Fold this sequence. Notes:
Elements: E1 2-15, E2 18-23, E3 28-33, H1 38-43, E4 47-56, E5 59-66, E6 69-75, E7 77-81, H2 98-112, H3 116-136
Antiparallel strand pairs: 1-2, 1-4, 2-3, 3-7, 4-5, 5-6
Amino acid sequence: MRLQFFGPLVVRSLGANGWAFAAPASGLSLVVRGAAPAATALLETGACEEVTLHWQADGLRVYVTVLGVRRLFDARFAVVHEVEPGLYDCLPLARFDGAAARFWRWVFFIVRLPGGFLWLQFIARRRASRRMLRRNVTRF
């Protein structure tokens, strides 16, 4: 299997033979671990134009183009994170109804007022004590 990423890609060292590649424009991030020592000399410039990952039976080959020169090094594994636009659009996420949204808008408005947090505490305690009184009332 082969994956190819174009960019300008920002490269940073993760230490212990690990490298992170990021393309800020597209949101792509790629982590390569267990890189051969030859990668250090190649990637210390901090930028590259292209990365190709080639998985083979005997391991992972990483082809990197830095300053117009294409080089190869071996690595143990790579993790690729690609941003998918609209990924969460089809999920049934929880939404507030109109009354709940209005309630929370008021709560956050009151909290931002000077002393608003104290008012919310007072209201919450008052309501809690009323509920407790109603529960503990015994009828004859």
